[in-house]
Design goal:
Layout: E1 2-4, H1 5-9, H2 18-27, E2 31-38, E3 41-47, H3 58-69, E4 82-86, H4 87-90, E5 93-95, E6 103-110, H5 119-127, H6 135-147, E7 152-155, E8 164-168, E9 174-180, E10 187-191, E11 197-200, E12 205-208, E13 212-213, E14 226-232, H7 235-245, H8 250-255, H9 263-279, E15 282-285, E16 288-290, E17 300-303, H10 304-311, H11 317-326, E18 330-333, E19 339-343, H12 354-365, H13 387-398, E20 403-404, E21 410-411, H14 413-418, E22 432-433, E23 444-445, H15 450-462, E24 468-478, E25 487-497, E26 499-502, E27 507-510, H16 513-526, E28 533-536, E29 542-552, E30 555-563, H17 565-570, E31 577-582, H18 584-589, E32 606-615, H19 620-628, E33 635-644, E34 653-662, H20 671-689, E35 692-693
Parallel strand pairs: 4-15, 5-8, 20-24
Antiparallel strand pairs: 1-3, 2-3, 6-14, 6-15, 6-16, 7-14, 8-11, 9-10, 11-12, 12-13, 17-19, 18-19, 21-23, 22-23, 24-25, 25-31, 26-27, 28-29, 29-30, 30-31, 32-34, 32-35, 33-34
Helix pairs in contact: 6-9, 10-12, 11-12, 13-16
Length: 694
């Protein structure tokens, strides 16, 4: 938001320097991003947080400056003579939806002459980036910038029945707004929903409440009589309608944050005064103020002890009182205590609890007084559920050379559709699309965690980084088959590409499927999940011959593998890319295996290798299962050492080199004992799988 320092000085009676004011406001929580010299003026660019709509105007900033520097505040004056007939005798206001519009004020100015605005008003508006339209429209924009309260001007003689009705739109009702289409001079026509609030005349909608006026009753060169509107609209209603219609206006920006319900009369009187000044005419006697249920603000208690506990330094009680009164609060000290009751001004819609008052005291006194120490804490801290397990997963992957990534939850639809790795309660025909996406090129909530890792890999690849090892722990968003609200699933995504360090060869080699498998085994070990198995998987985005799934007690915990050749070619991946996605929430629910300690082995282990030729349909997991079922007491390990295909082997067969490790806890095993156990393994593999020895 842009603020003119020259305009600000008209409301603050003090000789202040622009940069001093900017620094003090910034330290008080109203950040000045930039200071720009525009002609003879200085313009501040503010970054106003959404909880401070009262500061979205020159008068709002002037109130802050007056309080912070303890100088007088000069409110803009409204000067006009009222004449008969009264406004109430010529028009009426009916509010049919008071829960969405609790107050509506109308004033009638007759006999105006539409024309260009005076130079001083045009220059002031242009300094702040506003285009001059005509004198009446410029007044409403001027008052918005000055007072912060949105106004609208109707051509009174075009209002059906010369009256106003505030109501919900009828289903299918349409309105042509004052917004022009980007393609030309045509105005945008909008179809309304029955949950949208409109300003109507006796016949049809003439404005979308708090957002945009209609073309049919807009100010034109033929306008003679002007009906001014100043109202309060329920913030959530304005926000919902503005998002649904994709209409973001200066008015909606303020109304959806919370306007000042008591500023309606002040703003409309100021506008009437300026219209008479720049466009002539007379103001009809009285305003039509429809306010069926006036808002009553509840006093908030504030204790000096609470102020000092939160701020960490002593604050005299009198300074607390003066600070709040300077900011416009009504303060009543409680007798014989160091407590008070404070009622916030109507424009401070963000004040609700005692801590809000503490913050106001701190802002007024200056945040620089807060000591740079951590506040005392008397409670007991603890990790969130599963936090230790998540840290174990992170440590396991980092120890293998992986870096943690954090990506957006929003994703491109095409990327989301291409990489669907885990199918858990998900309707794969549709993702979770956003009605009003924050990013136009990312209109969907991710249904797979690997999408962010893919984007990170592509960014690294474009910058010449070929070797990438990433993981991410986060939420993915799934649309269940029953069509109800989306569900969130905590997930672990892993990506591997390029070369990795190989301890056996003391160098780097190309990463492969088994490196990803090893990373997943490290994660499962970190979570102390036992008895898991690996099965073949069929996942569209993964290579049909290099993909697997992790299974525990019949439940799929995740899938992993190499990106399919067709998808890799489509996305122009220069090297093999391996992905994994694990249902971390399910893994955290698995009861961890107990930690068992045993003494170091006293006797040596004996290793025996065997190479077998089996059909490619036989995987290592099936071999391990068969060997474990033999129940050989001295068998301490059985691992896959190598797989070989080609050569003189049949096309549908491959060779597995397996290593069995034997050891006894009571004595050193003899060669004959090891040979007997090893022979049982060889016989079992030959019997069950038709394995031939190489």
């Amino acid at each position: 938001m842009r603020i003119s320092f020259n305009w600000l000085k008209e409301m603050v009676v003090a000789d202040l320097d622009a940069r001093t004011v900017a620094e003090r406001l910034t330290l008080a929580g109203l950040a000045v991003d930039t200071i720009e010299e525009v002609g003879t003026d200085t313009v501040f660019e503010f970054d106003i947080t959404s909880n401070r709509p009262d500061a979205l105007s020159h008068f709002g900033i002037a109130r802050e400056v007056a309080a912070l520097f303890d100088v007088p505040l000069s409110a803009p004056a409204s000067r006009f003579d009222e004449v008969d007939p009264s406004s109430s005798s010529l028009t009426s206001v009916t509010i049919e939806a008071p829960e969405l519009c609790p107050r509506y004020v109308a004033r009638l100015v007759r006999g105006v002459k539409i024309g260009p605005s005076p130079d001083w008003m045009v220059r002031r508006l242009e300094t702040l980036g506003q285009r001059s339209i005509n004198n009446v429209a410029d007044v409403t924009n001027y008052v918005l910038l000055e007072q912060g309260h949105p106004l609208h001007a109707f051509d009174f003689n075009r209002l059906g029945g010369n009256r106003i009705v505030v109501r919900r739109a009828a289903p299918g009702e349409r309105i042509v707004t004052l917004e022009k289409l980007a393609t030309g001079d045509e105005f945008r026509e909008i179809e309304l929903r029955d949950d949208m609030l409109v300003i109507a005349d006796a016949n049809a909608p003439v404005a979308i409440a708090g957002i945009k006026g209609g073309k049919g009753t807009g100010i034109s060169d033929e306008t003679v009589d002007v009906l001014l509107e100043a109202a309060y609209f329920q913030p959530a209603s304005v926000r919902r309608t503005a998002r649904a219609l994709k209409l973001d206006t200066d008015a909606s920006h303020r109304f959806e944050r919370g306007a000042d319900i008591d500023a309606t009369v002040r703003a409309i009187d100021r506008a009437a005064s300026l219209i008479v000044e720049v466009a002539g005419g007379t103001v009809c006697r009285g305003a039509v103020d429809t306010y069926p249920a006036p808002v009553v603000r509840t006093p908030i208690p504030l204790r000096r002890a609470r102020v000092e506990a939160l701020l960490g330094y002593e604050v005299p009680f009198d300074r607390m009182v003066d600070a709040l009164r300077g900011l416009g609060f009504a303060v009543e000290p409680l007798r014989d205590t160091e407590e008070l009751l404070a009622v916030g001004p109507s424009y401070r819609v963000d004040i609700a609890i005692e801590e809000d008052l503490v913050e106001e005291v701190a802002r007024s006194l200056g945040y620089g007084l807060v000591p740079p120490t951590l506040p005392p804490w008397g409670g007991a801290g603890e990790y969130l559920p599963g936090e230790r397990a998540r840290q174990s997963v992170s440590d396991a992957l980092r120890s293998r050379g992986y870096s943690e990534a954090i990506s957006l939850s929003f994703v491109d639809r095409n990327l989301d559709d291409e990489f669907v790795c885990v199918d858990l309660e998900r309707d794969s025909s549709s993702g979770v699309d956003l009605v009003n996406p924050v990013l136009d090129n990312k209109p969907r909530m991710r249904s797979s965690l690997v999408t962010g890792l893919i984007e990170a890999y592509e960014t690294n690849s474009k910058h010449g980084t070929r070797n990438v090892q990433l993981f991410e722990i986060g939420k993915r968003f799934l649309r269940p088959l029953d069509g109800l609200r989306p569900v969130e699933r905590e997930t672990l995504g892993i990506l591997l590409a390029g070369t990795i360090e190989d301890g056996d060869y003391r160098g780097r080699r190309e990463s492969d499927f088994y490196d990803m498998k090893g990373a997943i085994e490290a994660v499962l070990r970190a979570l102390r999940i036992a008895s898991f198995t690996f099965d073949r998987a069929s996942v569209e985005c993964l290579h049909p011959g290099q993909s697997a799934r992790v299974v525990l007690d019949g439940q799929v915990l995740g899938v992993f593998g190499r990106v399919s050749p067709s998808l890799a070619a489509k996305r122009k991946f220069r090297s093999p890319l391996f992905l994994a996605e694990l249902a971390l929430d399910r893994m955290l629910e698995v009861e961890a295996a107990p930690v068992a300690y045993r003494r170091l082995p006293r006797f040596p282990a004996v290793g025996r290798d065997v190479s077998i030729v089996v059909p490619k349909s036989i995987n290592f997991q099936a071999v391990v299962t068969a060997v474990n079922q033999l129940g050989i007491a001295d068998l301490r390990g059985f691992v896959l050492y190598d797989i070989f295909t080609g050569g003189n082997l049949p096309e549908d067969h491959h060779s597995m080199t397996l290593r069995a490790t034997f050891r006894s806890d009571e004595r050193t095993l003899t060669d004959d004992e090891v040979s007997v156990s090893h022979g049982r393994i060889v016989d079992e593999l030959a019997t069950r799988f038709g394995a031939d020895l190489r």
